[in-house]
Design goal:
This protein is 31% helix and 26% strand. By secondary structure, it is of the alpha+beta class. The protein starts with a strand and ends with a helix. Belongs to the 2-oxoacid dehydrogenase family.
């Protein structure tokens, strides 16, 4: 017997609530398989099986409150569904038993079902929403073929077939699922072969379309939507993703490159409004729900205040224009404004550490690392991937890192690790033409810098009126930890470093 214990929950966390068991008493379990999730006031924790065997007893039901070290359940070690018949066999003939084992295993390999389970989606991710299945129950699938995408509040997780065979779907599109939950099964290849004649005989007319589907590349749900909505041929799209997969960026590039796309709108005018519903109700995606909740929580928690300044971009633009071709040839990436801003921000954070800190209860946590979040707008919503150790990167390193994060965000390939742990955030509304805004803090961070559109404006310079490229900067900060003097000093320092970029390069 092995006890399933409540793990340590953190220094300031004294209790947790049982979320949902993924197994029932009597179910076989494997070592390190997720059995139950505990919810605290800070994070959700997954508790795994301490051994192979059978979940003999559940001692804490869903919704109960438990403390660290409490026994949640018991696993009978060594006892499993496969082992049970062997244990029940007579002891009189010990020799034949091993010989009989392969015979007993054969049906399980050929006719048994392989479970399709929800993968672990991160320590703080308790559930996800099922996307649209790319196959139907009864369809034959290949091993590692993409079957469905599960959308969490942070990233989309792709689920592939664990084996070749016939698919059975247990969780429909839109259903909420938890890590470890079974969402389908696949009858192994032997069962697939046995089941194949029935659908084949019933649908000879679909043989041609089935052949086309078999020849078509496997597409993620996000790519499938782009392909379907724009009538693209997947086989004609140049794939740049891992293992030759088509990314969403590839599909979007194919739309722009398609010469026949232009005449279509002229030939098919928009339908009159009378033929369309006046309103349409659409369920918010899990990502959009999380964005809404976190932004409102940030407003409700922090004492948010915004201070403004403006920066003359003349010298940065001149430096960029002078070296952009040499820079791109040398480093293989374009020289943009984000690297200059990131360098200036990191140096200002060194000087005003409160802006790089966060509040935890009655404590202030000062960060001695500089992981800069970069807000990226995608078709699913705003995400903020994190550029790690920005203080250790060159301008080229910053540009490459931001470009890679932006591409991963737009293609839906960001990992949970890339979305967590930022210490300060930059958001650039100027790419959409924003002149001025008040960004909302990305909790639990204490500062976020809003960049805006560069506009030619008349400015008084040394007694003369000159036309200069000007940008408004907005620093939103948590007034509980950052005083007004510190916030203004921080923003002025960023302004100085951008208006005289040599200062940042010389560390002045």
């Amino acid at each position: 017997m092995a006890d399933i214990l409540t793990p340590a929950l953190g220094e300031s966390v004294t209790e947790a609530t049982i979320g949902k068991w993924t197994k029932k008493a009597g179910d076989p379990v494997k070592k390190d398989e997720v059995l139950v999730e505990l919810e605290t006031d800070k994070v959700s924790l997954e508790v795994v099986s301490p051994a192979d065997g059978v979940l003999a007893e559940i001692k804490a039901a869903d919704g109960e409150t438990v403390t660290p070290g409490a026994v949640l359940g018991v696993v009978s070690e060594g006892a499993s569904a496969a082992a049970a018949p062997v244990a029940a066999a007579p002891k009189a003939e010990a020799a034949p038993a091993p010989a009989a084992a392969p015979a007993a295993a054969a049906p399980a390999a050929s006719g048994g079902a392989v479970a399709i389970s929800v993968p672990t989606m991160g320590e703080s991710v308790a559930e996800g929403s099922m996307g649209t299945w790319l196959k139907k129950s009864g369809d034959t699938v290949a091993k590692d073929e993409l079957l469905v995408e599960i959308e969490t509040d942070k990233v989309a997780v792709e689920v592939s077939a664990p084996a070749a065979g016939v698919l059975t779907i247990l969780a429909d599109a839109g259903a909420s699922v938890t890590p470890g939950q079974q969402i389908g099964s696949i009858a192994a290849s032997g069962a697939a072969a046995a089941a194949a004649p029935a659908p084949a005989a019933a649908a000879p007319a679909n043989a041609g379309s089935a052949q086309v589907a078999a020849d078509a590349p496997h597409l993620s749900p996000a790519v499938q939507r782009v392909v379907t909505e724009n009538n693209l041929d997947p086989k004609a799209i140049a794939a740049t993703g891992p293992k030759g997969n088509i990314t969403k960026g590839d599909a979007l590039a194919a739309i722009n490159a398609a010469p026949a796309a232009a005449p279509a709108p002229a030939a098919a005018p928009a339908a009159p409004r009378a033929d369309q519903p006046r309103e349409e109700r659409v369920k918010m995606t899990r990502l959009r729900q999380t964005i809404a909740r976190r932004l409102k929580e940030s407003q409700n928690t922090a004492a948010q205040l915004t201070t403004f300044n403006e920066v003359d971009m003349t010298n940065v633009m001149a430096l960029r224009a002078q070296y952009k071709e040499v820079f791109e040839k040398r480093h293989g990436v374009k020289l943009g404004f984000m690297s200059f801003f990131t360098k200036a921000i990191v140096q200002a954070l060194h000087e005003i550490p409160a802006v790089n800190a966060e509040i935890d209860g009655t404590d202030i946590i000062y960060k001695n690392h500089y992981d800069i979040g970069v807000a990226v707008g995608t078709d699913k919503g705003l995400v903020v991937p994190v550029l790690r150790d920005a203080d250790q990167l060159t301008l080229a390193g910053i540009e490459k890192g931001i470009a890679a994060l932006g591409k991963a965000a737009r293609d839906g390939d960001l990992t949970l690790d890339q979305l967590q742990g930022g210490t300060f955030t930059i958001t650039n509304g100027g790419t959409y033409g924003s002149l001025m805004s008040t960004p909302i803090l990305n909790a639990p961070q204490s500062g976020i810098l809003g960049m805006h559109n560069i506009v030619q404006r008349p400015m008084a310079v040394n007694g003369e009126v000159l036309i200069r490229p000007m940008m408004y900067l907005a620093l939103s900060y948590d007034h509980r930890i950052v005083d007004g003097k510190e916030a203004v000093t921080f923003l002025v320092r960023v302004k100085e470093l951008l208006e005289d970029p040599a200062r940042a390069l010389l560390d002045l």
